[in-house]
Design brief:
Blueprint lengths: L1 H27 L7 H13 L1 H15 L8 H21 L3 H35 L15 H30 L4 H27 L12 H16 L3 H10 L4
Helix pairs in contact: 2-3, 2-6, 4-5, 4-6, 5-6, 6-7, 7-8
């Protein structure tokens, strides 16, 4: 009887996933159903007190019976802000309107959506396959990390990095793309802090889940970033120049 019970729980869990996705995508086009004020509160606290945001994740699980957000406002607003920031770069550095459209679409898809989906999928597979605690007995309800939650974690981690590497970087870019050691050093430090903070928030997102263990694994990329940064500085690699040349080479 126990295997039958386990299968029924698994099937009921998967059946709940589809309505959750359908409801989520329906709400994307209905602004009146989005909690904009709470979304901006989350964005502010992700930059200043990220642990507070993930404490609210526990309350969401208790009230909604899911770890993932049921409100797409965060993704929608984050996407709009990224598009606006990219348009600001295009207005300053681009040479044509048609190329600006290509740049906006490219940045949105590659920097945020596709990369985020790939990272979320890898983390979803990793957490569910290797980092879940074994249930002490067969009567305990099995918990799994929802894919939508892993994408939420990516979005949470992306926003402070966006503020640093898209907004702050925009105002510093005229200096960062010049020749010299100081622009080279500052550019690498900016990218090092942004990437490190992204992975730190990634760690917080999974560390809050009580059924996961060894979540410090998500902190390991920070060590790689810190080791690579001085190597890139000594080799003369300027990440600001690299990415600006990738999109606006004819204007630099």
């Amino acid at each position: 009887m126990l295997p039958t019970t386990s299968r029924s729980r698994s099937s009921s869990s998967s059946s709940r996933a589809n309505p959750m996705f359908l409801q989520y995508f329906r709400r994307i086009v209905k602004w009146q159903q989005m909690d904009i004020e709470y979304t901006f509160w989350q964005m502010l606290n992700l930059c200043t007190s990220p642990k507070v945001v993930y404490q609210h994740t526990k309350y969401h699980k208790q009230t909604k019976n899911q770890w993932a957000r049921d409100d797409p406002a965060f993704i929608v607003i984050c996407s709009l802000l990224l598009i606006l920031a990219t348009l600001a770069y295009c207005a300053t550095y681009d040479h044509s309107g048609s190329h600006a459209v290509v740049v906006v679409i490219s940045v949105f898809l590659t920097h945020f959506l596709i990369t985020g989906a790939l990272i979320a999928t890898c983390c979803w597979f990793l957490t569910n396959s290797y980092l879940r605690e074994e249930a002490p007995n067969s009567h305990v309800v099995e918990q799994r990390v929802e894919w939508l939650y892993t994408f939420d974690v990516h979005c949470n981690s992306f926003f402070p990095m966006f503020v640093l590497l898209y907004v702050v970087h925009y105002f510093l870019s005229p200096f960062l793309i010049t020749h010299g050691f100081i622009p080279l050093l500052l550019s690498n430090l900016l990218f090092m802090v942004g990437a490190s903070y992204y992975h730190y928030l990634n760690f917080l997102g999974y560390d809050v889940l009580p059924f996961l263990e060894r979540t410090t694994f998500f902190l390991y990329p920070i060590g790689i970033v810190i080791v690579l940064s001085p190597i890139l500085i000594l080799s003369g690699f300027n990440p600001s120049k690299y990415f600006m040349n990738m999109y606006f080479s004819q204007r630099l």
